[in-house]
């Protein structure tokens, strides 16, 4: 906890001679420790360990010779951080992976899916809201129909390119197109497209 006097100004004239102005040097905040229900006992046990007891005894022995408050504070801080590292977990933040832009991404589907996920999260937060539920079902139906139409367009374009290769008697393009088709085709999909043709 700290108190700051906002009425006072900090200028270069306030800095004593011989000391350096460290206002421009910023340091990274250390990672935060996770405090759990059993952390109090763990911390006490870690303070009793020989390594920490040596640090504490060293600080007590040299305390009279330390004239600088910052040095003394650094030593005490070092004791606490070393103790915490022995017994506490460190909070880690997960970084989101950036999506690499690719030529085969369908942005229409991606944007519709993003809209659907936002509504899904809102619906989970407020499950009894009828307006949210209705909007969610409308967007869900739009998303499903968009996926179905994109899937049909994909297969129709592949069938068209196969037919063109057969008409032109171009075996190279025929096999190239056939190999580019996904191997995970379901039987129902092939039957569906055979009926349409």
Q: Short summary of the structure?
A:
With 197 residues, the chain is mainly α. It is 60% helix and 2% strand. The protein folds into 2 domains: 30-90, no CATH class; 107-196, no CATH class.
User: What Rg do the Cα atoms give?
Assistant: 33 Å
The strand line-up of the biggest sheet is 1-2
- Return residue spans where pLDDT drops below 50 for at least 5 consecutive residues: 190-197
Oligomeric form of this entry?
single chain
Global shape: elongated
Please tell me the total number of domains.
Answer: 2
* Average pLDDT metric: 77
Distance between the termini: 75 Å
Query: What is the element string, with H for helices and E for strands?
Result: EHHHEHHHH
Percent of residues in beta strands: under 5%
Largest sheet: 2 strands, antiparallel
The portion of residues assigned to helices is 55-70%
Number of helices: 7
Give the tally of β-strands. 2
The helix/strand class is mainly alpha
């Amino acid at each position: 906890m700290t108190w700051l006097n906002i009425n006072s100004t900090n200028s270069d004239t306030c800095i004593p001679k011989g000391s350096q102005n460290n206002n421009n040097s910023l340091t990274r905040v250390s990672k935060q420790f996770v405090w759990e229900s059993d952390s109090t006992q763990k911390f006490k046990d870690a303070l009793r360990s020989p390594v920490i007891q040596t640090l504490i005894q060293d600080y007590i022995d040299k305390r009279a010779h330390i004239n600088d408050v910052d040095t003394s504070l650094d030593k005490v801080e070092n004791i606490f951080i070393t103790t915490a590292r022995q017994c506490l977990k460190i909070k880690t933040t997960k970084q989101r992976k950036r999506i690499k832009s690719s030529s085969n991404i369908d942005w229409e589907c991606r944007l519709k899916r993003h809209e659907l996920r936002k509504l899904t999260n809102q619906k989970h937060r407020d499950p009894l809201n009828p307006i949210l539920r209705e909007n969610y079902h409308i967007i869900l139906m739009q998303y499903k129909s968009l996926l179905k139409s994109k899937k049909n367009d994909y297969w129709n374009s592949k069938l068209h390119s196969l037919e063109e290769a057969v008409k032109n008697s171009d075996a190279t393009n025929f096999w190239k197109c056939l190999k580019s088709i996904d191997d995970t085709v379901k039987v129902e999909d092939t039957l569906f497209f055979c009926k349409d043709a």
